[in-house]
Amino acid sequence: MVIDVHIHYFDEKNYLEKLLEACSAVGIDKLCLSSSGPHYLHVGNNKIKEAFLKYSDRVLGFGFVDLGKDKPELVKELAEGGFKGLKIIKPTANYDDQQFYPIYEQAKAYGLPILFHTGIVQRMPNDFQADVSSDRMRPIYLDTIARAFPDLTIIGAHLGTPWLQEAAMTARTNPNVYFDITGSPYGGWRSVMTAEDYKKLFYWENAFEKIVFGTDVKIEDLPRAKEVYHQVMDSLDLPKETRSKILGRTMASILKI
Predict the structure, then answer these.
(1) Can you give the pLDDT at residue 106?
(2) Sheet holding 154-156: strands in order across?
(3) The whole model's pTM is what?
(4) Count helices and strands in the chain by DSSP H and E runs
(5) What distance in Å separates the CA atoms of residue 135 and residue 95, rounded to the nearest whole number?
(6) Which helix (H) or strand (E) holds 180?
(7) What is the pLDDT of residues 133-180, one digit of tens each?
(8) Residue 178: phi, psi to the nearest 5?
(9) What is the C-alpha to C-alpha distance for residues 239 and 106, in angstroms, rounded to an integer?
(10) What does the pLDDT look like over 58-95, one tens digit per residue?
(11) Residue 48 — very low, low, confident or very high, per pLDDT cuts 50/70/90?
(12) Distance from the Cα of residue 55 to its chain's centroid
């Protein structure tokens, strides 16, 4: 079973049905479908909920929480509404600022893993007005959260690029931290990475089992996004067991499915 931990629902006509069709075509069985809010042209949590209620066999809802604006009560509402995880991006302070701890406490209490954007973030026209800062989303802040909430499953996106070593060491140190290696499938950060580069980052025993599969692209780029993951796994000559964990078994265990 292939589970995409990082896939978004864009606010476009018939996008969900087209997305599910495209996922079937490339062999993605289940989608951890999320929004990053209107700033990134995504639908709201209400549409995510409609999606997983209608396609419960395929879609797992990850609710968007706007750190610094939303209250902890939202997490309770999302959990009781059937969401299986949270998506967080664009905080008003560093991820590990203690003002956000009530959000993380609620996520832990309800067993909801959190997918954090980490590293440089996509540039949007109104970033200044929205007070967007990539520096607030450095992967090292997940280390603080992981230590404070050892029972909370944390997934960092994009291996924290450009802070790759910081991300890898955060994953190594904390058993509750994982990363996806999503990025642009055409000329993004992975295009300059070699097998040796990955081995230097993930040098400890079973290190590559801290990676989970995600795409984080629009429909037309899904085939290439999945292909890049396979190219990375092939270049590393990863065993079948490790590939299986990356592509879905790890997330299946986290989500208890």
Answers:
(1) 98
(2) 3-8, 30-34, 59-64, 85-88, 114-116, 154-156, 177-180, 211-212
(3) 0.97
(4) 11, 8
(5) 10
(6) strand 177-180
(7) 999 999 999 999 999 999 999 999 999 999 999 999 999 999 999 999
(8) -130, 165
(9) 37
(10) 999 999 999 999 999 999 999 999 999 999 999 999 99
(11) very high
(12) 20
Q: Ramachandran region of residue 203, left (φ > 0), alpha (ψ -120 to 50) or beta?
A: alpha
Q: Judge residue 26's burial from the number of C-beta atoms within 10 Å of its C-beta, 0-12 exposed, 13-18 middle, 19 or more buried.
A: middle
Helix, strand or coil for residue 86? Answer: strand
Question: What is the mean predicted confidence (pLDDT) over 217-222?
Answer: 96
Rounded-to-integer distance, Cα 253 and Cα 103, Å: 23
CA atoms of 158 and 189, how far apart (whole Å): 9
* Residue type, position 141, single letter: Y
- Contact present, 115 and 32 (Cβ < 8 Å): yes
Rounded CA gap, 194 and 36, in Å? Answer: 30
Give, for 64, the enclosing helix (H) or strand (E): strand 59-64
CA distance 6 to 182: 8
Nearest residue to 37 (alpha-carbon basis) of 58, 11, 16, 3: 11
Cβ-in-10-Å burial (0-12, 13-18, 19+) of 47 comes to middle
- Cβ atoms within 10 Å, residue 67: 21
